[in-house]
Amino acid sequence: MPTLADAIERLVAGNREYAQRAAEADPNAFVELSKGQAPEVLWIGCADSRVPETTVCHCKPGDLFVHRNIANCVHADDLNAASVVEYAVAHLKVKKVVVCGHTKCGGANAALGDADLGQTLNTWLHPVRELRRKHKAELDRLPDDDARAVRVAELNVQQSIDVLKQHPAVKKAATDRGLTVHGMIYDLGAGHLRLLEESGRKKGNGLWSPT
């Protein structure tokens, strides 16, 4: 059985290989990164190990400013998420904000019921469980728990965007320079991102823009 030391050694060895390959491909890559960052996108995603945003979007270091947590939630009273949003929007001047959920999400699955997950997770997932209760009739019409979990993940992305719309930095940037916010779902089984729509919005416009 692999030991903790094995896992850490694998990370260090992997880093050395990455650094060597990156330097061979572009000798100035790390020099340029050390000068600062100017990402165009703030990515708010799930902490799930199967959804590494830079990998699934085929991006390079410096392309995405990232915040991840259990079930990609943005709560109104979460200082952690709010500070990331403020820094990305007001100081880095990102042009887009993406909230990305995914299929087979453990948080969305857990929100289908009320099992005791421990005080911290119970509190964190409470707003998602409230979504399930609010949309019970719709969810009950779906064929199975897999379909219900995907729909909860979609609703949770939409709820997070509703919270983002009220963030002062987001509101100001949307008005002043056209910042837009978009919702996506990543299909673990296919490796594809799907852009969500909101009633009244055209496909491709994301879930919210200032106009």
Automatic annotation (TrEMBL):
InterPro entries linked: Carbonic_anhydrase, Carbonic_anhydrase_CS, Carbonic_anhydrase_sf
Enzyme Commission number(s): 4.2.1.1
Cellular component terms per the entry's GO annotation: cytoplasm
GO molecular function, one term: carbonate dehydratase activity
Coiled-coil annotated spans: none
Function of the protein: Reversible hydration of carbon dioxide.
The name this protein goes by in its record: Carbonic anhydrase
